[in-house]
Design goal:
Strand content: 15-25%
Number of domains: 4
CATH topology of the largest domain: Heat Shock Protein 90
Structural class: alpha+beta
Largest sheet: 9 strands, mixed
Number of helices: 20
Length: 662
């Protein structure tokens, strides 16, 4: 689709998707293949879901919902409803074909029981019921069943309503027909409650799940995902229900519009798609007036954070096509000009790339990098033809994009000169480290940490209170540059950012190399007031926009200095919130001296060490990215040039602010 016009018709694309994702409309017992048993799951749950923490807990929901989405990919499901109940159980209902219930030829049990009790029993292995599956190394419903206190599955199929129950993975009776299914209706209903004896906690995060379901609805145009949360109001005791529906006929075009709703686009979103050798490719893209790049790549609905062959193919096409167009068609790139680089053509670009393929090969540190080498050529072929035709048919948009890229090229040259000036200055000063950095003696980066401290006063206390063997201190004066609306040459000109870049050692932009990082803990330490929160946000914005791998790989932390010192005689308590203060005061009878720390600079070096820097006592928060799309959107709202979205955000969330000190 080019500005709303499809390169292939919508009906044809839907049919191509079904052809690519389903071998046939048949879905019976002989299409369910059994690979191995279930016994080890409860003993070593981390091997199957990653952890028994929050991520592993949410993985259970994803497994069941992914099964319903697979039905949608095959063209047999249009509606999925997910409900979080007050007792921490989860209910997932779809209108797919329903899990087969007849006797499985290999196990001699009902196919439904086999799917729920045998690991890797499903229609996604070999020539089964699905040719494309949305699961990332999917461990299946059996693992969800094994790690749940109870599981109930109901299937509407062949005019009957079938039901089976499990207790911690063990069938609680045989499958039974419990009623009639309305004529023409099929589907599966799964209810499970995570086992509290296995998981650290069994309370689900609504926002985490909502972000995932919204993303899946964007990636599977036309599917409807309804998300309910039923919980008890702690004050009134009444049952409260929150309900949202995610349904986007525009698919990934709507996704791009969502990402850019607080940015100014220089053209309408461009969309193109195609199917080749059973692999389906969809790409939506839009250039904005901003400078940051937001490109999200997905393979079989999985966000491939580390990229892979599909992203490489798209980037190759973008650089080649725009250089050819600028030189041969629009004549905006002259013979004397340098060629546009990938960095130039991606400045201000927002894009979503979605591929669906029969045999995805995931690799990388977090298994979220697509490794299929053939996909690069497929993406290049489909994108090259479609994007080239679009530019020829839309010369106004083409010239605007080339003009944007040429501005980026000129800014890159300015950044290069600024970078060289920085290097020359460093060489003249006979050091590559900023003078105000108090470095540590340890040289093993894995053992080193650097504190980015607000203000010279607090920096002085931190330098005196630290452990010099492994803790480095870099004081930062004032508020650094807001990098959302800044190009690299302005960043290199900012002294505080320049000092951070030199201290960390990774470089920035095209020079960035995470392997050169000098400290494996980068701890942001600011005052517990509005200015401190602003400085912290500016620093996080810089890391997210220009050193994102530092965040993605878990190197960035936030220090948690105390708000109060409660003192009674020789008894001293440091507390970190108003709620903790009140709770502590209740245990300290009689007169108590209360000191409010207005800033880090007020703390003595010994206090700063005891409360905030001593690894054996401190609390630090590791910064991670749960949802890249939402993180990018929030940074744009909070730090972008548009005032109205920021005002609306503040008005909507003002009541949630704690410890506001104006």
């Amino acid at each position: 689709m080019l500005d709303g016009m499809a390169t292939t018709s919508e009906d044809q694309l839907q049919q191509d998707t079904r052809d690519a994702t389903n071998v046939s409309g048949l879905y019976g017992a002989d299409q369910i293949q059994v690979l191995e048993g279930l016994e080890p799951v409860r003993k070593r749950p981390g091997m199957y879901i990653g952890s028994t923490g929050e991520k592993g807990l949410h993985h259970l929901v994803y497994e069941i919902v992914d099964n319903s989405v697979d039905e949608a990919l095959a063209g047999y499901c249009s509606s999925i409803e997910v409900t979080l109940h007050a007792d921490h159980s989860v209910e997932v209902v779809d209108n797919g074909r329903g899990i087969p219930v007849e006797i499985h030829p290999k196990t001699g049990k009902s196919t439904l029981e086999t799917v729920m009790t045998v690991l890797h029993a499903g229609g996604k292995f070999g020539a089964g019921g699905y040719k494309v599956s949305g699961g990332l190394h999917g461990v299946g419903a059996a693992v969800v069943n094994a790690l749940s206190d109870y599981t109930i599955v109901e299937v509407k199929r062949n005019g009957k309503l079938h039901r089976i129950e499990f207790r911690r993975g063990i069938p609680h009776g045989d499958i039974q027909v419990v009623g009639e299914a309305p004529e023409g209706t099929t589907g599966t209903r799964t209810v499970f409650k995570p086992d509290a004896s296995i998981f650290e906690a069994i309370e689900f995060n609504y926002d985490t799940l909502a972000a995932r379901f919204r993303e899946m609805a964007y990636l599977n145009r036309g599917i409807s995902i309804t998300f309910n949360q039923i919980k008890e109001d702690p004050e009134t005791g009444e049952t409260v229900e929150h309900r949202e529906n995610y349904h986007y006929e525009g698919g990934i075009v709507s996704f791009v519009e969502y990402l850019n709703e607080n940015r100014d686009g220089i053209h309408k979103p461009i969309y193109f798609s195609g199917v080749k050798d059973g692999n389906m490719v969809e790409i939506a893209m839009q250039y904005t007036t901003g400078y940051s790049e937001t490109v999200l790549a997905f393979a079989n609905n999985i966000n491939t954070h580390e990229g892979g062959s599909h992203l490489t193919g798209f980037r190759n096409v973008l650089t080649r096509i725009l250089n050819d167009y600028g030189r041969k068609i629009s004549n905006q790139i002259k013979e004397a000009d340098a060629s546009l680089t990938g960095e130039d053509v991606r400045e201000g670009l927002t894009a979503v790339i979605s591929v669906k393929l029969p045999e995805p090969q995931f690799e990388g540190q977090t298994k979220t990098k697509l490794g299929n080498p053939e996909v690069r050529a497929i993406v290049e072929s489909i994108a090259s033809d479609a994007f080239g035709h679009f530019l020829e048919a839309n010369p106004g948009v083409g010239k605007a994009i080339i003009g944007k890229a040429m501005d980026a090229l000129r800014a890159r040259e300015a950044a290069r000169k600024a970078r060289e000036l920085t290097r020359r200055k460093s060489a003249l000063e006979s050091t590559t480290l900023p003078g105000k950095l108090a470095d540590c003696s340890e040289r093993d980066a894995a053992k080193c940490e650097v504190y980015l401290v607000e203000g010279d006063s607090a920096g002085g206390s931190a330098k005196q209170g630290r452990d010099r063997s492994f803790q480095a201190i870099l004081p930062l004066r004032g508020k650094i540059l807001n990098v959302v609306s800044a190009r690299l040459y302005r960043i290199y000109a900012n002294e505080e950012i320049q000092a951070m870049i030199l201290a960390l050692g990774t470089g920035v932009g095209e020079d960035f190399d995470v392997s050169r990082l000098r400290y494996h803990k980068i701890v942001i330490m600011t005052d517990a007031d509005v200015d401190g929160a602003h400085i912290r946000t500016l620093l996080l914005t810089f890391f997210y926009r220009f050193m994102k791998p530092l965040v993605e790989q878990g190197y960035v932390y936030i220090a948690q200095p105390p708000l109060y010192k409660l003192e009674k005689g020789k008894i001293i308590h440091y507390v970190y919130s108003d709620r903790e203060k009140e709770a502590t005061l209740a245990t300290m009878a009689g007169d108590v001296s209360i000191s409010r720390f207005k800033g880090l600079g007020e703390m003595m070096p010994e206090q700063l060490w005891d409360t905030t820097m001593d690894p054996s006592k401190r609390t630090v928060l590791r910064v991670n990215i749960e949802d890249a799309a939402d993180a990018d959107r929030i940074f744009t709202i909070l730090m972008g040039e548009k005032v109205e979205p920021r005002r609306e955000f503040i008005q909507a969330h003002a009541g949630e602010v704690l410890n506001l000190d104006i």
